[in-house]
Amino acid sequence: MELKQLYREIVNEHNLHPVHKKSIENPDLVMRGVNPSCGDDITLSLKITDGVISDAGYEGSGCAISQASVDMMVDQIIGRSKEEAIKLAGTFMGMIKGEITDEESIEALDEAAALQDVAHMPARVKCAVLGWHTMQEMLEHPEKAQKN
Amino acid sequence: MSSITDFRRDFDIFGSGEYVYFDNAATSQRPRQVLDAVSNFYKTTNANPLRGLYDWSMDATKEYEDARKTVADFVGAVSSEEIIFTRNTTESINLVAYSYGLDNVSKGDEIVISVMEHHSNILPWQMVARKNGAKLVYLEPDDEGVISRQEYESKITDRTKIVAIGHVSNVMGITNPVKEITSYAHSKGAVVVVDGAQSAPHMKVDVTDIGCDFFAFSGHKMMAPMGIGALYGRKELLENMSPFLTGGEMIEYVTRQDATYAELPHKFEAGTVNAGDAVGLAEAIRYIEKVGFDRIEEQEKKLTALLMDGLSKMPYIKVYGSKDPTKHCGIVTFTMEGVHPHDMASVLNDDKICIRAGHHCAQPLMQFIGAGSTARASVYFYNTEEEVERFLDRLSSVREVMGYGA
Questions:
Q1: A104 CB neighbour count, 10 Å cutoff
Q2: Does A63 touch chain B (CB under 8 A)?
């Protein structure tokens, strides 16, 4: 997808009218993710119930791609098990790095699959993966995710 | 007399006219003359300079030392011995920090820099301050980017050992009063280091007139190759400083346990030198002199005025620094309401327009002006009014692309 089309059809909606950009009650895991070179700065909160992400939200600021990507991600992971969420993060990051290209894997990402063409914009890869990387890190290393 | 259009034809990269290049404060483009000079060095006289006793090496040595003389004259140094070739401004400032700073700054002393400095003129001084227990003191500008006399006179004191200041800010574009600051710093017994990375390409520099003790600059921002820069240092200071790097060709005599060092400037140029690019730098200087600083400044001011006038008609744009386009040295830093600078740069790239977005290696300044990230358009004399118009036209469409109505 051409860049301007990507903004107009996918990114802007999530950036300007995010669904999950909010704090959640009694999160179990909270982690901050930062891209120092561009100032993208998010704090992701997850509530885990019986191994399933029962609620999630994020706060922060950054470029449209970073914000839209994390909004789409939160939409995808609510209701999924920790293992499924980690697997999705691996798929997303593989897709953005251009390592995963088969349609079947990418379709699992649902709307976030639209960011596939960021793979051709090396300068924006870090923006797109910020939320996913943060989520993977806090699920795999919960000891690093400060609890409220 | 050649026109700007004629000079522009010397730059193959502009041949297709496809791209608008407005990131000149990061690095300039190079004319064919400079590329040919480097290429000719390797094609005709290449050998390791300063060593060989045969024609090629002696020719290479002559070209290298002629380049040093060209640089010395370019910045108004008294003698060629006061010019040390380095990789870039960063290495030049590090040389001063390690070889002068560490030996001359003591516990309780102060180093004065400004909050507008590029990281390359901050981190070396943080290192000296940390290692020697000194304090780093920051000069702060007003909203227009001006460091007032009162500001520097209140912060440069008898405790100040070094004042390190950018000649032109790479974000605000403002020219700092380096001559006045140097004079005041000297009255307090401090040594002055001027970061000339953003001034040397754009204005006539005379280190003797400024009076500074060190002046650092890069070749790559003034049409020379990447990887060649220079440090001017006052001879008395350089002579008493320890070498920065040690090794080949910077020695006089070496025994198993000891060594004596070569005379200036070679004491500071350890290892095989970058003669090919030094020749390129000398050619770039000749090119600048052919264009002339009067014409460079005139064209930059004309483009900056057009640029700032266009930006002022976009109510969602905020420009940083002086409102006077003649005080920007071709650098215009701005933000767009509701649009992150990285999105702006990506959308403009889609229209083949190159601008910088981010913190411009000046994070303390970003914190000071309260912007996490900004966009920067920077012009050089070879840019054109048509390019500015194309940039403004495309910029005015960015908000729509980002979802803010038509």
A1: 6
A2: yes
Q: Does B358 touch chain A (CB under 8 A)?
A: yes
Please give the structure tokens belonging to residue B39.
């290429």
Which chain A residues touch B372 with a CB distance below 8 Å?
Answer: 39, 41, 61
Residues 6+ apart with CB under 8 A from B232: B72, B75, B77, B82, B83, B84, B207, B214, B215, B216
For the whole model, what pTM was predicted?
0.94
Question: What are the structural domains of chain B?
Answer: 4-22+292-401 (3.90.1150.10), 34-289 (3.40.640.10)
> At residue B406, does pLDDT exceed 60?
no
CA neighbor of B300 nearest in space, from B320, B335, B328, B276: B328
A124 touches B at CB < 8 Å: yes
A43 strand-pairing partners: A32, A59
Statement: residue B350 has pLDDT above 60: yes
Interface residue of B344, B346, B352 to substitute, partner A, most A CBs within 10 Å? B346
Which residues of B are marked as active site?
A: 361
pLDDT greater at residue A146 or residue B21: B21
pLDDT tens digits along B136-188: 999 999 989 999 999 999 999 999 999 999 999 999 999 999 999 999 999 99
Q: Reduced to 3 states, what is the DSSP secondary structure of residue B91?
A: helix
CB within 8 Å of A97: residues ≥ 6 apart: A119, A125
Q: Cβ–Cβ of B403/A8 closer than 8 Å? A: yes
- How would you label B127-162 residue by residue, b for 16+ Cβ within 10 Å and e otherwise? ebbeebebeebebebeeebbbeeebbeebbeebbbb
Region B5-14: mean pLDDT is: 97
Option in B342, B350, B403 nearest A63 (CB): B342
What angle separates helix B293-312 from helix B385-395, to the nearest 10 degrees?
20
Closest to B192 in 3D by CA, of B203, B175, B177, B172: B177
Cα–Cα distance measured from residue A48 to residue A99, given in angstroms and rounded to the nearest whole number = 30
- In the predicted model, residues of chain A with pLDDT beneath 70 are 147-148
* Numbers of helices and strands, H then E, in chain A: 6, 3
Is-contact A26 B337, C-beta < 8 A?
no
Percentage with pLDDT > 90 across chain B:
91
**CATH number belonging to domain A3-144:** 3.90.1010.10
Q: Which residues of B touch A127 (CB under 8 A)?
A: 342
